[in-house]
Amino acid sequence: MLFPRLIIYFAIYSFLGWIIEVAYRSCHQKEFVNAGFLRGCFVPLYGVAAITFLGLDNLINGWNVAVQFILYGIVATLMEYGAGLFSEHVLGVRLWNYADAPLNFQGRVSLPFSLVWATLGVLFIRIIHPFVSGLIIRLPANAAIPIATVFTVGFIIDFSVSISLARKLSEIVKKGYRKIIATDATELEKLLRKEKRFLYTFTSIRKDVAMAISAKFESNMGAILVRYKPLIAIREIRSEDLNDPEYLAIVADILTDMEFLRTKDYLHHKSSIFDHVLKVSYLAYQIAKFKGWDARAAARAGLLHDFFLYDWRDSNDPDRPSRNLHGFRHPKIALENSRKFNLSAIEEDIILKHMWPLTLRIPKYKESFLIMFLDKYVATQDFLQKEK
Fold first, then answer.
1. Letter string b/e over residues 34-69, b meaning 16 or more CB atoms within 10 A of that residue's CB
2. Complete domains list, the chain, with CATH
């Protein structure tokens, strides 16, 4: 009966590990996070650590508690390091990254977390396992085997599915940007939405996905700017110089709205909000038209993506969001201010998600990535011009 009970112990401690991870990540991200690599409520690393601690206890039982503490920490750190290598080289994604934590090694392990592991090891052997084993021993022999069998089958299925999904996410990191730049981004969008839990739970994956997609998209757009020379003239554009009847017809209701025109009064980057969004809008319109994308949505949402009416640099401005939260909150503010213009789904997505990956919502459309890139591009050009 030892093996079925070991499986049950593994399941129980994997579940307790899931509870610990949920509590930690939810507190850290200030919202409920369904933590763990598996889709079920289990974190196998905790189960493996627990079984390993039990085996180690047979060797060091009776030793000084300080020595036990150190050994548990070392063993757990080695397992965490191995699990990190497995996720990176087998799954193709990094599930955690301690690069910003103090005293880390290769971002896979960190001394503060090793101390946590060591503490959990001592608590596990001295308090948690004696209580749990007292309950499991009472389990009838004819019940242990079916319970262990059901868990084993479910775990194998869950683990197999999760590995497959992790590898798909790895493919996004490597080449998902191509599906955005292509005519149809639906496949990428559906996959990102389907695996939203992975992206929200493991911030390192979200960061890798964001960097890969953004870098490749910006590289593609940069090549267009180099090839399509007339677009560069947008650096000098002013509203009174616009003589493109088609563009002006698309945005006429916005450019004549008195509330929107108040954006001229607020400094943004090195110019006014109005000057900044006008450049983004007209350049987006030209590129989208050149690429055969939705030029109307790009033009209108390009104007509205920063439609907020406060000085984000002035902490005393009563209309400014909470301190240091402008980057996170202004897309929602801009969207609310823009709803009176009867926005399309693409326009709403552009406005709400133009600060990705700073904000969590993943852009849904090519045009959203276009504004996200041009927002940074125009701001950079303005800065360089003013500095010259």
1. ebbbbebebbbbbbbbbbbbbebbeeeeeeeeeebe
2. 2-175 (no CATH), 214-387 (1.10.3210)
